[in-house]
Amino acid sequence: MTPRAPALALMDPAPTMTSSLESATSSTEAALDRFLRDVERRALRIAELGCGSRDVALDIVQDAMFGFVRSYAAKPVGDWAPLFHRVLDSRITDWQRRQRVRGRWFTRLGFGGADDDEADLLAAVPDPAEPGPGGRASDDEATRALDAALRALPARQRQAFLLRLWEGLDVAATARAMRCSEGSVKTHLSRALATLRQRLGAFQ
Amino acid sequence: MSDHDDFTRAVTRRLDASVDGLDAATRSRLAQARHAALASRRRPVRTWLWGGLAATMAGGFAIAFALGLHLRVAPPTPAPSSELAATLDDDFAEDVRADLYTDLDFYAWLSDQDAVASNPAGHL
Description:
Chain A is mainly α.
């Protein structure tokens, strides 16, 4: 005879609610972990193509992860990819802006050259795709050529190309990530493809 | 034009390969970043942060209120009319004339001195 236990359970529902809340939180966290684990490497490469340095790219991706988790973790899972890439793009743009301002000040103070623009800054940082000893020369050459072609693209075209064709977002999600219209995404993508085909030729 | 033709497939394959070939140190740093971001979600927002935010907002409202009150209490000063400006000019001229009257003896002596300087023989 155990009538007491069910009665207590009915009178005090708090433990059940707490445990369901905890399980919901942990399942969200598990979903977030899966999502970030899936996207983090490609995010690193996208950041690397935007800033030209792996260390800086790692900082940018970490910052983007923090910003995404803080602001958008409660959003529906289907919205996570465009939102994460929006945060990532914002961090990359911030970094590029800071570099431009810093370059301008360095030039004024006489520490920099007269032509300190973005292209020169990117050229100054070490190339992460630089082949190491014993590396596969042809593969590395192809990767370097691809990296150079992607870096030479205007930022919006590169973003449209990477999000739409590599990240696999549809046009609407890409437009959401880029904060522009779907027509703009198509235009940027078309121009990016034309330039890449011209630069890389028969890329294998 | 198909988005996924041979060219784009080759490019994305190359990009995938570059991601798959990331070194262990980089992968480890990415994992650390992910864990830190997820851990930040579990941490409660510090109460002092909210207190500081509330104090800043209260200060801002107080300044805005004081500014608004000042603008309401003190109406803007109207520019002087042309008539008033003319009166002010006259007052200034009056001041100059009053100075002349006060030092009349000095100006008379100065005039004598000029006459003596221009005709020294007559003076003798």
